[in-house]
Amino acid sequence: MTQQVEPSHEMWSSRWLFVLAAAGSAVGLGNIWKFPYIAGENGGGAFVLLYLVCVAVIGVPIMMAEVMLGREGRRSPINTMMSLTARFRSNRLWVLIGWIGVIAGFLILSYYAVIAGWALSYIGRMAGGTFVGADTSVATNTFEDFLGDPLLMVFWQTLFLLITVWIISKGVVRGLERAIRWFMPLLFVLLVVLLGYSIASNGFQQGWNFMFSFNLEALDQDAVLVAMGQAFFTLSLGMGAIMAYGAYLPSASSIAGTVSVIAVLDTLVAIIAGLVIFPIVFVNGLEPQQGPGLMFVTVPLAFGQMPLGVFFGALFFLLVSFAAITSAISISEPALAYLVEKYKLKRSSIAIVLGFISWILGIGTVLSFSSWSDFYLFGGLTFFDSVDYLSQNIMLPFGGLLIAIFAAYVLPKNIIKQQLGFTGETGMLLWKIFCGGIAPLGVLFVFITSGLGDLFITLFSSVK
Q1: How far apart are the first and last CA of the chain?
Q2: Cα–Cα nearest to 259, from 26, 59, 428, 64
C-alpha cells in the first residue's frame, strides 16, 4: 500500500477544469505569434510535423512527469519535492526542482505582465480606430511612441497585474476555476470567429502555404533545435505551474489521457493562430515580421485596412489578452501556493505581496525599452533580455531535465504504476524509454546548444 497524501489545497472540481487550466497555462503569447512565424520560416508543414514529434516524445512525457509529481505530493512544487524526497529517502538536492520552477516562473511573470499590458492597451487602440487607413509609418510610430512612454507602459502593466492578483487571490474554485470557465471557452470562440474571418479573406491560401508548404530543405539543425525548444516552452514545462496544477487534480483522472488532450489543444491554438494572422497580413501585401513587430505593428496595420477591421482587430487583442491572463495565473500559482503553505496566511494577502514584488521587478523591463535601453548587464543584454534569457534558456530546461530524471529513476516503480495506471511491464518500459531516455536527452541537447553554450559565449565576449 502506498502512502496517501492529503491535499493541502482545494481540488479541481473536474478533470476538464484541469485540462482547461493547464491548456490556459500552455496557451500564451508565444502560441499566437511565435509558433506561426517559426513554422513558416523553417519548412512549413515539415516543421509542423517535426514540432508534433517533439511534443509527443519530449513535451508529453515531461508534462506527465510534472503532473504525476504534483498529484503524488499534493503540495506546492517546493513542498511536493520536500515531501517526496523525505518519503522515498532520496537526496534533498532534488528539492531544487521546486525552487527552480518557482523562481523562474516569478521572473517570467515580471516581464510577461509588461508585454501582456501592451496587448490590453491595443484593445482600445483598435476599437478606437487608431489604425483605420493608417500606413506603415503610423503603425510603427504608434508602437515606438508607446514603448517610449514608461508611465503609460506601467499603467497597463499595473492593470494586468491587478486582474491577475484578483483572480488568483480567490483560490482554486472561486478564482482559478471561475476565470478558466470563462476565459478558455471565450478564447476558443474568438479563435474560431477570427479563423472564419481569415478564411473569408483573399489571403487565406497564401497564409496556408506560408505555414504548411512541405519544405524539407529548410529542416536543418537549427530548425530541429527550434522545434524542440518551442515544444518544451509552449507547454509551460519546468516552471512548476503544471506541477502545482497537478496537485489539485482528482486521483481518478487519467494523467496520460489528460496530458494528451492538453498537448493537442495547445498545438491547435498555435496552428489556428497562424491561420488567423498570416492571411490577414498577406491580403494586405505586408511582410510578416517576428516578435513585437508582427503583433503590434503588422497585424494592427492589416486590420486597419480591412472591412470591419476595427471590430475584429479589437477582438484579436482581446484574444491575446485572455491567453496572457490564463498563462499569468498559472505562473503565479507555484510561488503563491508555497507561501500559503509556509506562512498559513490568506491567499489574498500573499497574492498582493507577490503582485507588488513582480510589479517592482517589471519596472526594469519597462525601462529596458526606454531610458535603460543602453544599459547592459552583461554581453550586450538589457535588463529585460537578461531576465528572459536566465529564466527561459537556463532555468526552465534545467528544471525540465531534473523532472524527467527524477520521475523516471528516483520515484518508486509502484508509485509510477499507480499514478499512470500501468498494469504490466510494457508501460514501465515505455516510460523509461521516453521519460528516462528520449525526453531528458532532447532537453539536454536544447539546454546545451541554446542555453549553456550561448551563455559561455556571451560571458566570454563580455569579459573580453
Answers
A1: 59
A2: 64
Domains of the chain, first to last: 15-463 (1.20.1740)
pTM of the predicted model as reported, rounded to 2 decimal places: 0.82
CB of 404 closer than 8 Å to CB of 440: yes
Residues 6+ apart with CB under 8 A from 264: none
**What is the DSSP track for 193-226?**
HHHHHHHHSTTHHHHHHHHH---GGG--HHHHHH
Q: What is the pLDDT along the chain (464 residues), one digit of tens a residue?
A: 444 454 445 556 666 776 777 777 666 766 776 787 778 777 778 888 888 888 888 889 999 999 999 888 888 889 899 989 999 888 888 999 989 888 888 888 898 899 889 999 999 999 998 888 888 788 888 988 998 899 999 999 999 999 988 888 876 566 666 777 777 788 788 888 888 888 887 888 888 888 888 777 777 777 777 787 777 777 877 777 888 878 877 777 888 888 888 888 888 888 888 888 888 778 767 666 555 667 788 788 878 877 888 888 898 888 888 888 888 888 888 888 888 888 888 888 888 988 999 999 999 889 988 877 777 776 677 888 888 777 776 787 788 889 999 999 999 999 999 898 888 788 899 999 999 999 888 878 766 765 455 544 444 444 43
Look at residue 378 and give its three-state secondary structure: strand
Task: Report the 10 Å Cβ neighbour count for 366.
Answer: 26
Quick count: other Cβ atoms within 10 Å of Cβ 86? 11
CA-based max dimension of the chain = 69
Q: What is the 3-state secondary structure (H, E, C) of 245-292?
A: HHCCCCCCCCHHHHHHHHHHHHHHHHHHHHHHHHHHHHHCCCCCCCCH
Separation in Å, CA 235 to CA 169, 260, 395? 24, 11, 15
Q: Which residues pair with 381 in a beta bridge?
A: 378
d(CA 331, CA 49): 28
Residue from 251, 238, 242, 331 nearest 72 by CA: 251
Distance CA 262, CA 268 (A): 10
